[in-house]
Amino acid sequence: GAGVSQSPSNKVTEKGKDVELRCDPISGHTALYWYRQSLGQGLEFLIYFQGNSAPDKSGLPSDRFSAERTGGSVSTLTIQRTQQEDSAVYLCASSSTGESPLHFGNGTRLTVT
Amino acid sequence: GENVEQHPSTLSVQEGDSAVIKCTYSDSASNYFPWYKQELGKRPQLIIDIRSNVGEKKDQRIAVTLNKTAKHFSLHITETQPEDSAVYFCAASREGKLIFGQGTELSVKP
Prior knowledge:
The complex is a heterodimer. By secondary structure, chain A is mainly beta. In chain A, the strands form two sheets. In chain A, strands 2, 4, 5, 8, 9 and 10 form a six-stranded mixed beta sheet that branches. In chain A, strands 1-3-7-6 form a four-stranded antiparallel beta sheet, with no helix packed on it. The N and C termini of chain A lie far apart (about 35 Å). By secondary structure, chain B is an all-beta fold. Chain B is built from no helices and eleven strands. In chain B, the strands form two sheets. In chain B, strands 2, 4, 5, 9, 10 and 11 form a six-stranded mixed beta sheet that branches. Chain B has a five-stranded antiparallel beta sheet with strand order 1-3-8-7-6, with no helix packed on it. Chain B is globular. Classes of the chains: A mainly beta, B mainly beta. Chains A and B meet through β4 and β5 of A and β4, β5 and β10 of B.
């Protein structure tokens, strides 16, 4: 079947604008993750959804960042009042359970000018 | 929360040599330890994983060892090939929350 799908693949926005990134996980996967990867850097944990449980938001860097997952499927990551330091690749991943292999999407490359 | 340290940050080996990457974790309740390989411009992909009830796991040229007492785990790649060149990430998970190390850029020179 289809893998994890992310859109848009690239997003250029002006400083101060809001952006919304979308992730469509593999069907049936209960766990969904968002990570941020700056150029040449590691995978920074942002947020984790597991089934109907409250999400683990401990990695969100500021209150400008929020995420939701509707109907246990599609997730959106919203960044308000974007700053230049928000520029990075935002990766979404899903897995069948909380501790099984993650399947990553291709990411959204966000550039804030 | 969980903190994962990974060393070295860069590693260069000759083709055919072995490569070892080491990670330590802070949360003794972590129980799942996967390794991911990320080639340039591509998404990370799982290469091997180990759970806390196992001390060692091997898959062809790749092996992972886990020392729960010391809270460290290692990736061993034998008979390295140029196509092994990539960035490797270790990770540790407690109750599904997966935290990654900073990555090791492995370069295999022919």
